[in-house]
Amino acid sequence: MEFFDSHAHYDDEKFNEDRKEIIEKIYKNGVTKCINIGCDIQTSKNSIDLANEYDFIYATCAIHPSEIPQSEEELWKMIEQIKKLAKINNKVIAIGEIGLDYYWNKDNKDLQKKAFIYQIKLANELKLPISIHTRDAIDDTIEIIRNNKVNLGGVLHCCPFNRELVKQGLNFGYYIAFGGTATFKNSKNADEIIKMVPLDKILIETDSPYLCPEPLRGKRNDSSNLKYVVSKISQVKEISEDEVAKITYDNACKLFNIEK
């Protein structure tokens, strides 16, 4: 069984002591494709470095909503740097993670929206899909994806189990990514949302080192734990784990234009 982790952060400081060993471990455990996600200038550079070092790792570049600077002028400078990074490396396969996060910061909503929209336009310019982060910002996220077409599609990363967001995301052609939260015993609507999403629109992810699935919840996450997410989807969809792994692998390759 092969797995495609569509969202991870192996440049995170939590991997500083054993990064090489963990990356080698996940590959031996069948994770033969993995996307390392950029959240600002430095992590975008880190992601590219990892992608250049490991054949099976790919990179994204972006300014995460929690990394928005205080001034609009500074934001545009940062996005221009993201544009340059994304243009010079063919292992950058998406703009992300971008979006809205009102959990950590409610004071800069307008600037978050501008950053989101501008980076959608950047993805279109560079002919790349996007990876969307949304937290406590369902309505504004729906409004933006409704009014700003993404030419090559995208994914709702670690999608909140909100019926309307998933419904609208699917209507606009987005993929829905499930991670460790889908396995949490206290996750409301998880089974219902998994049932909602057609098989050809499902991706899997870990968001490593965060959101470790049951039964390892609370520990440092890594991509070898995708098997628990696959098992959950398998149970809800009533298909084999092998089928889930293959379908989500093929879906990710299609969305991110990566050869199988």
Walkthrough of the structure:
The protein is of the alpha/beta class and 260 residues long. The chain has one domain (3-255): Alpha-Beta Barrel (TIM Barrel). It is 42% helix and 17% strand. It has helices at 19-28, 41-53, 72-87, 109-126, 138-147, 163-171, 190-196, 226-237, 241-255; strands at residues 3-8, 31-36, 57-61, 92-101, 130-135, 154-156, 175-178, 202-204. It has an 8-stranded parallel sheet. Strand 7 (175-178), helix 7 (190-196) and strand 8 (202-204) form a beta-alpha-beta unit. The longest helix is centred in the middle third of the chain and has 18 residues, at 109-126. The two termini are 14 Å apart. The model has no long low-confidence stretch (mean pLDDT 97).
Topology of this protein?
Elements: E1 3-8, H1 19-28, E2 31-36, H2 41-53, E3 57-61, H3 72-87, E4 92-101, H4 109-126, E5 130-135, H5 138-147, E6 154-156, H6 163-171, E7 175-178, H7 190-196, E8 202-204, H8 226-237, H9 241-255
Parallel strand pairs: 1-2, 2-3, 3-4, 4-5, 5-6, 6-7, 7-8
Helix pairs in contact: 2-3, 3-4, 5-6, 8-9
Structural key phrases:
single chain; 260 residues; alpha/beta; TIM Barrel; eight-stranded parallel beta sheet; 9 helices; 8 strands; 42% helix
Let me know the largest β-sheet.
8 strands, parallel
Question: How many structurally independent domains?
Answer: 1
CATH superfamily heading: Metal-dependent hydrolases
Shape summary: globular
Count of beta strands = 8
Physical arrangement of strands within the biggest beta sheet: 1-2-3-4-5-6-7-8
- Structural class, from helix and strand content? alpha/beta
